[in-house]
Amino acid sequence: MFLGTGTPLPDPDRSGPATAVVVDGAAYLFDAGAGVVRRASLGVRKGIGALNSVNLKTVFLTHLHSDHTLGLPDLMLTPWTMGRTEPLEVYGPVGTRAMTDGIQKAWALDIDRRLHDLQPATPRGWDVNVHEIQGGEVFRDERVTVTAIPVLHGAWEAFAYRIRTRDKTIVLSGDARPSPALAQACQKCDLLIFEVYTMGSTEKVTQPWREYRRAYHHVDEGVGRNRRGQPTRPAGPLSPRESGMRSGGRQLRHVGKRSGSVG
Ligand SMILES: [Zn+2]
Predict the structure, then answer these.
(1) Do 20 and 3 meet the contact criterion of CB atoms below 8 Å apart?
(2) Is 67 a catalytic residue?
(3) Annotated catalytic residue: which of 11, 13, 67, 110?
């Protein structure tokens, strides 16, 4: 389920980047953009109990750009406030630990009051277990195997993730230019979730922004075409209905980015 497909642009129709992969009643989150926990609650309303906030226990960060991580304090603290009993497991590049340490420091008074005041609180749900990763297999349980693929996103250390279940393979690019490693990771995958800036929006921004987009992101020339060269879906943002859909099947899906953003 796409929890958010936005950019730093404060678009009221799009939350920050976050995707939930739900397998056999367990949720695995990829990125934690602004609004992630509230958007997960929309999933609960649609019948996906795995997205109940107390069940949000594992997140993989593609990189540490603010639009991909502004929801991290929300993901660390709101599910705990709702009753999560376990620490949040956080996988991400070098710098993830410094970020979670900073968040805990920023909210230290809140954590202390909730733990020691009259308000009931579980003793460990506020905490995090951080796993700073390199490329390769980073996670395995009885439902999924998650592999991190280093991708090109300017100066950032950034990862795409390949998620294998018993019967599906999903690849999520995060923010990335196309690269041979990413293309290789997508071979025979069932679903590719790839970021893209549309040409239409790119033509409207200044030259420095165009150069930035081409250096750090994908502008929709080429990717997303089938063997006959036809687009696999119209370029552009997902509709609100699509952005909340559960995904499946063999398809290539773009997640559109809009103009004027640094993400
Ligand atoms: Zn980024």
Answers:
(1) yes
(2) yes
(3) 67
Render pLDDT for 19-34 as a digit per residue (tens, 0 to 9).
Answer: 999 999 999 999 999 9
Q: Report pTM.
A: 0.85
* CATH number of the 2-257 domain: 3.60.15.10
State in Å: Cα 211 to ligand 1 middle: 15
Can you tell me the distance from the alpha carbon of 87 to that of 130, in angstroms, rounded to the nearest whole number? Answer: 10
CA distances for 11 relative to 156, 183, 203, 257, angstroms? 24, 30, 20, 11
Report which residue type is found at 141: D
Q: How far is the CA of 258 from the centre of ligand 1 (A)?
A: 13
What is the DSSP-derived secondary structure letter of residue 45?
Answer: H
How many Å lie between the centroid of ligand 1 and the Cα of residue 112? 33
The domain locations on the chain are: 2-257
DSSP 102: H
DSSP state of 73: H
Report the C-alpha gap between 135 and 148 in whole angstroms.
5
For 218, the token pair is: 């994908």
The neighbour count for residue 211, using CB atoms within 10 Å, is 10
pLDDT tens, position by position, 180-239: 999 999 988 999 998 887 777 777 888 888 888 878 888 776 555 555 656 555 433 343
**Amino acid sitting at position 9:** L
How far is ligand 1, taken at its centre, from the CA of residue 123, in Å? 34
